[in-house]
Amino acid sequence: MAQSNHAEILRARSALSLGTSSRALGAALLLLGATPAFAQDATPAPAPADQAEEGNLIVTGIRASLTSSANIKRNNVTIVDSVSSEDIGKLPDVSIADSLARIPGVTAQRLEGRDQRLSIRGLGPDFSTTLLNGREQVTVGDNRGVEYDQYPSEFFKNVNVYKSADASLIAAGISGTVDLRMLRPLDQKKDTFVVSLRGQMNEKDKLNPDGTRYGYKASATYVGKFAGDTLGIALGVSAQNTPTQIERYAAWGFPNDPLAGGNLFLGGAKPYVQSNLLKRYGGVATIEWAPSENFHSTFDALYSNFKETQHLRGIEFGVAPAWGSGGVIAPGYTVRDGLVTEATISNLVAVQRNDLNERKAENISLGWNNDLKLSDTIHLNVDASWSRATRTDFLLETYSGTGYNSSGAKDTIRIRQNSDGTYDIVPTIDYSNTGVIRLTDPRGWGYNGTTAVVQAGFLNRPDFVDDLKALRASLKGEISGSVLSAWEVGGNFSRRKKESNYTSYFLCPKGGGTNCTVASGTPTSLAVPNDVLLGETVSLDYLGVPRMLTVDPMKVYGLLNSVYDNRPDSLVRDNVVSEDVWTGYAKLTVDGTVGDKPLKGSLGLQVIRTKQQSSGQIAALVGGVVTISQVAGSVSYTNFLPSASFSLELEPSFYIKLGAAQTMVRPRLDQERITQAVSIDLSKIGLGGQPQNSPFSSNGGNYRLRPYQSTNIDISFEKYLGNSGGYLALTGFFKHLTDFVDPNNSVLYDFSPLLAALTPAQRAIVVAQNAQIGLVSSPKNTGRGDILGVEATASLPFTVFSQALDGFGIFASGTYVDSKIRYANNVTPITLPGQSKWVATGTAYFEKNGFQARATYRWRDSFLAELAGLSANPEYRLGRSEGVLDAQIGYEFRNGPLTGLSILAQAKNLTDQPFVTSEASDPRLVREYQRYGRDYYIGITYKF
Fold first, then answer.
1. Cα–Cα distance between 139 and 125 in angstroms, integer?
2. Which candidate, 363, 234, 360, 211, places its Cα nearest to that of 286?
3. Contact 120/105 with Cβ under 8 angstroms?
4. Quick check: 96 pLDDT over 50?
5. C-alpha separations of 307 from 280, 367, 557, 778 in Å
6. d(CA 209, CA 202)
7. N or C: which end of the chain has fewer CB within 10 A?
8. What value does the mean pLDDT take over residues 180-196?
C-alpha cells in the first residue's frame, strides 16, 4: 500500500512539474512578443580552430583556440563553454581534464598527481554526464563518472560543456554535460599528417627502486579527403608512459585520549611513498562520406588500452592508546589548544607495507551517424552506437613486522607535528633489518568472520564490465513564415549493463594449516628470504623514518598461500545493474525578433521511460556458516523534462541568454545494486531495545532508487568584442534539487525470521527487549535543497586596447557557488562533495610570429574531497584550498627548411602544491597529504 501511495505521489509530482513548466514556457513566449525573422543575415559559422579569423589576420595556436571557443559560445542559444584544439592533435593542455579545469565553473580534484574528479557548478562527477560525439559513454571507473585518462587528448577537436538543457541533448546531467568532439575530415581545408613526441620528467627522483621519473607521449594523426572531397578519412594513434612520484601521509584520526589528559591525540599514521606508471596506447578512425547534398554519413571508432602500475611502500604506526595501540605515553608531551603536538610513545607495534596495484583497462566506442535529406525542408537522422569498457585490478598488500599479533619486539617513537599538519615519526627500530623483521601479521588483523587467520597480506581482484548500446532516430523540418522556424522529433533507446565482481583473498605463510587459520596450525611468520630483497632501500626520511624493508611484493606473493575471502560483506559486492531507457523528445526552434532585436531559442520536452534492474546476492553469517540467497528485482518509472532556451541580441554583439529546464541524473550504479549483507552481532544481545542496539542489521543498495531531479534556471549576459575573439560574460544559475539520494539512510526492519539462529537463552533476551527490530541501511531519495551561483569570464586579446599590444591577452574566470542540501532525517545541511565556494582561473599569454608563451593559475577554495577508503568505498574529507601554476613556451617555424616544425616546453604544478585533506571540525587535523612535485615536458611536433 505504501508503494502504491508513493507511486501516486511521483505521478502527481511529474504532472505538476510538466503543467507548471508548460505554462511558464507559454507565458515566456507571450511576454517576448516574438515575431518571425525574414531575410536576416546568417550568423557566420566558426572558422576551424587551427586557423581562425581575427579581423583581417589569420591567427593560430592559443588565440585560434580561444576564438573558436568564443564562436561556439556565441552561436549557441544554450549556455555553453568550450575548449578547442590549437591545431590538429593538440588540445591546449597536458590532458583533457586539465583543459576542462580552465572552464568557468569547472574544478578538478587531483588524485594520484593528475586532475581526475571534475565538478561543474559545485556538483561532482556523479551529477554530470560525458558524451563522445553526442553519445553517452561507459567508463572504466567504479560508477558513472568518466575517468578522462581513458581518452587520449590528441584525438579531439573540441570539448564542450553544456550548462543549460536542450531537448535534443540525450542523457544530459544536472550540473552539465561534457561532449567530447572528434575532428571531421571533410571540414579540414587540406590533407594533413602530424607527428608529435614529448618527453616528461618529474623533479623528484624515483621514490621506489622499481619506479621511474621519466616518461613520454607520442602521437600521429592523418587527415585526408578523396573522391572530389566527398570522402574524408581521419586516423590517429597515440602512446604514452606517464610517471608520477608521490610522497604521502595518511592519519587514521584523532581520538580524545584519556592517557593524554583527554586531549586530541594522533590515532595512527602511515607515511609511504608511491611510484605510478600509466601506460596507454590508443587509436581513432573517422570515415566521413557525403556523396551528395542529400546524404551524409559518418563512422567513428575509438580504442584505448591502458595499464597503470603503482608501487607503494610505507609503515603503519598505531599510536593512540585509546585506539588499542597498547602504547605508553611518556610524561612531558606538548599540548597546543587541546591537541598533542609532540610526544614519545613506547610499546608500539608497526606494520610495514610493500604493496603493488595494477589496473588494466580497455575501452572501445563505435558510432555511425547517417543524415538523409527527404525533401527541401525535412531531414531524417539515424545514429547507432556501442560503447564498452572492461577493467581488472590486482591490488596486492604484503605485511611485515617484528612478530605475529604483537608478539615481537616493541618500538618507541617520537612524534612531532609539522607546520603543514603532518607528523614526523622517528622510530627506534631499524625497519630494514631482516634479523628483526619477518613476513607476518604484526597486529593480528586477520579474521575470517568466525576465527583468527594469519593475514600476512591481502589480495583484492575486482573486475568490471560496462556495456552500452544505443539507437537514435530523429526527423527535423523547417517552418516558414513563423517565429517558430524549425521542428524536431526523435527517439532514443539505450541499454546499459554494468557487471561488478569482487574477489578477495587472505594471504598467509606456507608450511601447514588449512584456510590460513591460526587454530589449524598455520605458520604465524616467515623469515625474509634474500632473493625477495631489492637492491635499494626505500627511505621515508621526509617524515622521520630513515629506511624500511624493501622487497619485491610479487616474489613475496609467491611465498604465501591464498585463501578465498567468503565473508558476507565481501560476497554481496558482486552485482549486476542494467538500465533500459526509452527517450522521446520534441523540440521547436525559435528564430524571430522582439522590438527589432534578434531572438533565437528553443522549446522542448523529453519523456523518459526507464526500466531499472539489478541482480546479486543477500548473504549472512549464521552459526559460523555463510548462507547465500540469489536475488533480483526491477522497477520502471517515467520522467517528464521540459526545457526552454532563448538568446536575445539586445545590442550588436551583446546577448542575454535565458534557460529553464527540468533535469535529472541517475544515481551511482553501486547504489542501485540489490545486494544486502545481513549481520548478527551477538555482543549486542542484552544492550536494550533501541534499533541501533539490535544484534540484527543489514546494509546494501536500493534497486528502486529514482534519479536526482533538478529545476534549473540560468541567465547569461555576454558581450563579444568585435571580431577579436574576445568577450565578457556574467552568468547566474539556480538549481532546486529534489529526490537527492541519502547514502546513509536507515529504516526499521523486523528480523524475527533470524531469531532461529540464536540459542533459546539468547532468543529469550532479544524478544523480551523487542531487540529483533533492527536497522536496514540502504540509500533513498530523501534529500532536497538549492544551489545558487555566479560565473564571470573575461577573454581579452589586448588588441581591444591597442594594436601595439597585438599577441598579448588574458583569459580569466571566477565562480561563486552556495548550496544547502538537507536529508529528511537530518535538518543540518550537508556539504556537496567537490564544491568550492570560490574558484578562480587566469591565463596570461603572448603569441605572435610563431612564438608563444603562457601561464595558467588555478585556485579553488576548500572543498569536500572524495577519496577511496577501505575496500574502495568512498570517504569524504575537507580538502584544503589550493593554487596550481602551469606554464609553457614554444615556437613554430613558418618558413625555411624547418617549416611545419614546432617545439614546446611545459611545466606543471610549478607551485608544488600538495593535496591536503583534514577533519572538517579542525583544519589542524590533517588526514591525507600528497605531494607530487613539479613535472617538466619538452616536445616537438611536425606537420606535413
1. 12
2. 234
3. yes
4. yes
5. 6, 25, 20, 34
6. 15
7. N
8. 92
